[in-house]
Structure formats: C-alpha cells, structure tokens
C-alpha cells in the first residue's frame, strides 16, 4: 500500500493559498460535478465536497494534493461553509448529482442515504482491505455502520463538545470554571455585573444552541433519554427530562446568559470564538474542532495559556455523569452510488492512500486535534498541545457515554425540524412543553 510521504509541515503548507484554491474550485464543481474526468496518471477523476475553515481546510487540501501525485487518478476538491453544505449536499444527493466523495457525519443522515441506496455499501471493500480498517480506532465505526454494513470511512479527529473558558476573564470577575449548575448561574451573574458576556453563542447557526440541549438532557436524564429518542421509541420526546431541559434554557435566557445579539451571530464566521479570545466573553460551549482555529487565529490566546477547557457542569438531582460526552466521534466519507465505476475506483484509492495517512494524523495533532487512527500516543505526547490533547484523549476513552450530536444521529428531516424548534425555544417563541410535543409529533410523522 502506497502512502504519500509528505511531512506534517509540508502537508499544512501544501495549501498555502488554500483560499484562492477554494474560490477557484467553487467555479468548477457543483451539483452534477461527479463526472469530472481528472488528469491523474490513473486516467480518472473523482469529485469531493468538504467543509471550509482552518485548520481542517488546509489539511484536507494537502491530503488531496499528496494523493493526486500518486498516479491513481485525480480528486477534485471543493469546500463549502458548514450550514450551506448541509442543504447543498441533501439537494445534490436527492437529485442524483452528488459528488463522488460525500462528506458527512454518519448516524441518521448516513442511514437515510444507505436505505435509499444513494451511497455505496463498502463492507466488502473493507473486508478486502483489512489493513485500512485496522488503522482506525474501533469506537468510530459505529456511526459508519447501518444494519451491520459499512457505508463510510472515518476521517479527521474525534471532536467532543467542550465548555471552553477565558481564564483571564474568569479570574478578573472572581469566578472558577463551573462544575455545577449553581456555579454556572453564579458565573453568569458575575460576568454580567462586570460588563462581560457570560457565554458566547453563535445562535443563528442553531446547531450551536443544540449543544446546550445535548448536555442539559444528558445531565438531567442521562444518555438513555436520547438513546430512546434516536431509536424512534414512541413518545420518547415527552420524557420529563426533555421538558426540564427546556426549562433550563429558559433560566439561561432570563439570566441573560448569552451575548447580546446571539441569535444573529453565525458560527461560520468564528465570531463566537473571537469574543472569547478578545476577552469579551467568559465561556463558550463549542466543538473541539475550534481549538485549532483559536490557536491559529486567536493572537496567542491558546499559546499564552488563557484558554481553559472543562466538562459541562452537573445538575443537582440529575442522572448524567460529569464525564459523559456529546459531540462527533469523527467525520465520515462515503461514495455516491451515482458515480461512475471509474470515479468509484479513484475514490476507493483515495480512501486507501489519502485518508488519514501518518502525515495527515501528524498534521491534525499539530493543530490540536485527536486523529481517529491508532498509534498516535508518542506524537501527541511530543506536541506543544500535549496537555489539551491528553485531556481530550483521556476524556473520550474514559467517558461512560459519548452521545453523537443530535442533528447527526437523527434522520435528516427530523434533524431539520429539531433545528427549527431549537431556534424557537431559544428565542422564547415556544415553551419547553411545546418543544417536546412538537418534536414528538415530527418524529411520529
């Protein structure tokens, strides 16, 4: 098996001008772009849509550039912002115009595509290429599997949702990282009194608000409540813990916990992160993927030790363990069933020799991520981000439960209804009871 022998420094730098490449690519690939002919020595091309944003964008571009030098065909890569991508890929797949390589999050979305035979069954591919499958951490395969068949290859890093804090701001307002709900409400009060935003939230994106619900429901009812919801059990949304979760959101809104104007802030612009690194906010609940962007864009925020990270607080009387996690076990790549045989072969070659190579894993570690492949302990220990990496790595290994992000675990139509109702809940347009009843109806329908 050939692997691109590209150093981690080269891989991160291989896309110097990645923004320019991205702008150019947007003009060459769109719905229907799955038919690219490519110019590689293998004589075939595959199209690939992925998410924009650093540092992942440069790492992915570098991996594709390295693969394209291997004479196994050419991968034509296009980046899209997170929210725009979700709508675009659903439309493209439904119209039979998907890219060859489909970026996704596994779970319910992948199940929908698999049941509609819109993505390839890769079970035999991994049986024939056991060494490829064995590179990956075992726990990440669950979200790639539907009815005991594998429909995607894991990619990127394990990304739990983390309660980040600005250590300097907390010290200035006389607060500690909150470990209980009472601690959190006290921190909110102290921050407001000091004229600091207690919590930075890019609520326009909706999935950012969802992170609060995911942890609240876990801490109140335990992970079993959402397990029943994800399994489609009748009236699972009507669990008392769901209503109490919504009541906690009402408490946060009433306490002015979130930055003014949170409902019009978008995560794609990193505006929520910027409030944290510019000392304008005390806390931010976000995915582990933001560590890398805060490191590269935060003007020394990470490097000078001002960034803190802690578990989500417990709630008195709740069933959830402080060590329970929610978030993304990995990113996932599938192959469109509508691609040509030639395109599928190039995609499989990329899965073998381009996805999560040693160089990619090292580049992920360099940017503060936990790659989803084995054998990275020494590289993490040698990293300048060793403390953070070890904290995340230990947390993911020791968590009693790691609940997949709801909009990934649920079927796409239910997930979209969820995001709409989350927005209404955080705007105060519906009550916790209405939220539970509406979601129960959506799931039943």
Automatic annotation (TrEMBL):
Protein's UniProt keywords contain Lyase: no
SUPFAM superfamilies: Periplasmic binding protein-like II (SSF53850)
Signal peptide: 1-24
Compositionally biased intervals (Gly residues): 29-46
Record's keyword terms, sorted: Signal
Region (Disordered): 29-54
UniProt keyword tRNA processing present: no
InterPro entries: Bact_solute-bd_prot1, SBP, TAT_signal
Name of the protein: Raffinose/stachyose/melibiose transport system substrate-binding protein
Record organism: Brachybacterium sacelli
